[in-house]
Amino acid sequence: MGILPIGASIAPLFPSPPIIPTPHAVSAVRNLLYIAQAPNETLVVYLKSVGWKVSAGTLATQASVLKTDTPLAGIVDMASFSARELAALEPALRHQRAG
């Protein structure tokens, strides 16, 4: 094998294997909690299209989801929250299951 020219890619030499979902992965529910003052609908549509079950809304509307034992991932857009609202969110983020 020779040296690759500058700008050449090795991708054609080493193609990545196809991703084949297993039956277990297909049936799994992936819950995602998205908290924002104004959730980005484009982001929500995208997340749903790649298999997430998205629960989106403000902190007040999503507080009940935070209190369940359902495993979930989360996105919190903190940019638009007031200091008071962030203080209300703190106990949920301090929960031992949150990380």
What does this structure look like?
With 99 residues, this protein is α/β, with parallel strands linked by helices. The protein has a domain at 29-93. The protein is built from 4 helices and 3 strands; from the N terminus they run H-E-H-E-H-E-H. It has helices at 23-27, 41-49, 59-66, 83-93; strands at residues 30-35, 52-57, 73-76. It has a 3-stranded parallel sheet. The radius of gyration is 20 Å and the shape is globular.
Which keywords apply here?
4 helices; three-stranded parallel β-sheet; 3 strands; alpha/beta; 99 residues
Kindly summarize this structure in a few lines.
The protein is an alpha/beta fold. The protein has four helices and three strands; from the N terminus they run αβαβαβα.
Q: Element order, helices and strands?
A: HEHEHEH
Stretches where pLDDT is under 50 for at least 5 consecutive residues are: none
Q: Major β-sheet, in short?
A: 3 strands, parallel
Number of helices: 4
* Beta-strand content estimate: 15-25%
Total number of β-strand segments? 3
Strands of the largest sheet, in order across it?
2-1-3
